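Q: What would this chain look like folded?
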Amino acid sequence: MRRALFGALIAVTPWANAPASPAERVDLQIVFAADVSISVDNDEFRLQRDGYVDAITDPHVVEIMRSGPFRSIAVSFIEWSGASEQRLVADWTVIRDAETAEAFANILRAAPRSFIGSTAIGNAIDYAMRRFVESGIDSDRRIIDISGDGDNNNGRPVEYARDDAVAAGVTINALAIINRNPKPGFLAHIHPPGGLGEYYRTRVIGGPQSFVLVVEDYSTFAEAITNKLMREIAAAEGPHDVALVTKFDARHSVAAVPQTPTVERYSSAVKSEYDVDRPSSAASD
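A: My prediction, written as structure tokens:
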């Protein structure tokens, strides 16, 4: 009954049939949705946040952003935890060059952590969908980029939110982060049956060319999100980007982007498609 009622409501929600805005057109819109639930400690939170900063300002990423027909993408950043805990950290920003990428990154650098609660992935997806309604931007592709280290344990069933988003034409991709230092009592949450990657593949991601990248630990998050972002932009911008992508990794091209939901692993030893070598930090925080 609850599912049927929600289905009736979703038919009239704004994102179900949102008109395209004539204000500005970009190649891709992405909502970054970062897990800040209690299973993510403060050190892991910092690695995750800094990883997004590094990815959005990476010169390779900026270059590929500028290679599409509109030479720009639009990004927004949210953090989420429990069913009623979602926060807009950085509002929609059109990134068209290194300067606009840096401006977006500076907002992320300065913002405090939003929550420390349970894990409501379904509610996070619903909140991200509302961000598209409010963007005032038009694009052929829209992506929700979920990162998290555990299964859904609060709020709306994630499969319902996933299905509604996909029906509205949105692709959901994910970074499933393997937490190597779980807090007591969280082992089942971060290691669901079949593994976290398989959980995200079957219950969270969806839509054309959707994929989940399993990140072997938080220390490789920056590399993983950088390569994932390049892959998403390349898929949005089409075959004309093959040469640009293969310049960064001659082993792969846009043709390798899967057409059905897939789960892949990323680690410092076994890297993913669209790999970008990043210099080692001179010092650690």
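Residues 221-237 form the longest helix (17 residues).
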